[in-house]
């Protein structure tokens, strides 16, 4: 075996957080291109999104698209000597709690922002989840080949809306058709954009004064002098480069570029693999610290992808390896039950094929074929000493549905199914206060559809679902709560543990409530 510490140190496990259409797929594809995993741009897209509507529809017919949706969940590529693991965080209609949970399995996040739009809602929400973990966030301001918002405004908005300090690593020299290149203070060079796709970027080192030595036409351009002035001003007046703050998620390095034309992308990834952390020590439930280089294997389940085909009951449990080395066929213990299991059928994820995995180490993700033994949040470990990771957080649901069994005779399987699916983390369950009606909560529409499908196929229970739409769920201290606080605009329900929760119609209703009951504190999950 290779030196474990050395192998762990070259792991970079991250997710891309962005609003749909900001360019996540395009930039992922560029990374695959640079790493040699694919040869042609367009491959990722042709496979999924564009040709046959990525995600939901595919996922529902998992048998045919297994290769697509599962491989695109995790991709492992070699980049510049680093083993890079990219975890997908689906947007659009397949957004779900799994998207958030995936962020619990990464060591860093890349935030792709459309420079024409600035910080959009989904980016903000995903950022909040990542930020809670205190992991580093690397920002890529995309679509520089188009006219967008002023770079200074983009950076100011980022700091203001997300509440994080920013450090521009490079600065655009123009935008859209005027885009000349990047004034790159981090690398102390100017990166000139090639004129055609065959014409690569040109790099010219800066001199001590921060100018380009020699005679070049572009030096006369106002776009160049402006970028140089802006960047220098920012560095005098703005935040200092501070690797520790970057790694704590308090300072985000900001890069500019265009994923579509590939401009600035390599510069971005080069800095990313340099600055992003390798897998590090984690605190366990009992307070012990676990080193990724510990000899014995351990990991946790952060996502379970159920097979939607009723003929195949197997599921894939995604495991983030936290320590040691996985070897095919090894025996591990499942912390929750204390039982031993053999990890025989596993899979690792490559850019364009799924391969049976033989070995994998801390930082990597493996998929285990599972027949229902594993649950989200489960810890598995090798050796005698039990390892229990901290529980995964629960997320505040945003969408709600009333649910009832269609056939009263099937009440029993309905209840059993709901109970198990809720326990599995597929969906959240609430009940109205007095009438005990069932209300399902989710962060994405797909969760409801999967729930309905699985209830029917796995539990033979057909259900009626009535959408209640978006609501703001806020927990309240039972002591402070009085039943008359509830109204048509803030429905009172209880969660699975019996804790009271208000479902507010909108933020207007929430604010109205806060004004009326200033002493009542409202809480939310992550
Ligand atoms: P997503 O995964 O974040 O949802 O975004 P994706 O990469 O699919 O990109 C969304 C659209 O934005 C795509 O256009 C893509 O080509 C475009 N795009 C991505 N990066 C850049 C960039 O750097 N510059 C420009 N100009 N466009 C970029 P599309 O699928 O063809 O949609 P449409 O724009 O034709 O509607």
UniProtKB/TrEMBL annotation:
GO terms for biological process: regulation of translational termination. Residues 9-280 form the Tr-type G domain. InterPro entries: EF-G-like_DII, EFG_III/V, G_TR_CS, P-loop_NTPase, PrfC, RF3_C, RF3_dom_3_sf, RF3_GTP-bd. Keywords: Cytoplasm, GTP-binding, Nucleotide-binding, Protein biosynthesis. PROSITE patterns: G_TR_1, G_TR_2. It is found in: Cytoplasm. One of its GO terms (molecular function) is GTPase activity. Gene3D superfamilies: P-loop containing nucleotide triphosphate hydrolases, Peptide chain release factor 3, domain III, Translation factors. GTP binds at residues 18-25, 88-92, 142-145. Its main location: cytoplasm. GO terms for cellular component: cytosol. Increases the formation of ribosomal termination complexes and stimulates activities of RF-1 and RF-2. It binds guanine nucleotides and has strong preference for UGA stop codons. It may interact directly with the ribosome. The stimulation of RF-1 and RF-2 is significantly reduced by GTP and GDP, but not by GMP. Belongs to the TRAFAC class translation factor GTPase superfamily. Classic translation factor GTPase family. PrfC subfamily. This is Peptide chain release factor 3. It comes from Suicoccus acidiformans. The gene is prfC.
